[in-house]
Amino acid sequence: MMMNGQKMAAAEVAVQLPESKMVAENTSGPFVGASGGGAAAAMRPFGRKAEVMNVLLRVLCMVTSVAALSFMVTAQQSSTVSIYGFMLPIQSKWSFSHSFEYVVGVAAVVAAHSLLQLLISVSRLLRKSPVIQSRRHAWLVFAGDQVYT
Predict the structure, then answer these.
(1) Across residues 79-98, what is the average pLDDT?
(2) Do 111 and 15 form a contact (C-beta atoms < 8 A)?
(3) 3-class DSSP state for residue 69?
(4) Do residues 1 and 10 make contact, with C-beta atoms less than 8 angstroms apart?
(5) Is the pLDDT of residue 84 over 70?
(6) I need a surface site. Which of 12, 15, 45, 83 has the fewest CB within 10 A?
(7) What pLDDT was estimated at residue 42?
(8) Cα–Cα distances in Å, from 65 out to 21, 82, 148?
(9) What single DSSP character describes residue 88?
(10) Ranges for the Casparian strip membrane protein domain (predicted)?
(11) Residue percentage of the chain with pLDDT more than 70
């Protein structure tokens, strides 16, 4: 290789870049736990209140999922119909419909997912570790909740 009329070796041509310091991304927030204590824990604006609120929302989700499932499983209707003066009792149980059985199955899966997430959140809260470990974990939980919704 030639530069200014002089022959240079390949090692002399290498470019050295200045050192740069990489700034870590702030991944803390009201629902994202900080790794470690001290100053990192002070970066969380809501602290344990947000984690307790997260667990309470999981409890609310679990209660509503189980209530919806129990209402669907026990749904039935009965009435009487008068045909030419004859009173005929009619009873309808919604589990005879295949599409309704599918909806009940989906509600059961949602209730199981809610129970699993509730148990995980409560165990982490009792161990005093962050309920949501990282930003990636928060997105994963959010995506799972959206799928089951």
Answers:
(1) 80
(2) no
(3) helix
(4) yes
(5) yes
(6) 15
(7) 42
(8) 49, 38, 11
(9) E
(10) 48-148
(11) 67
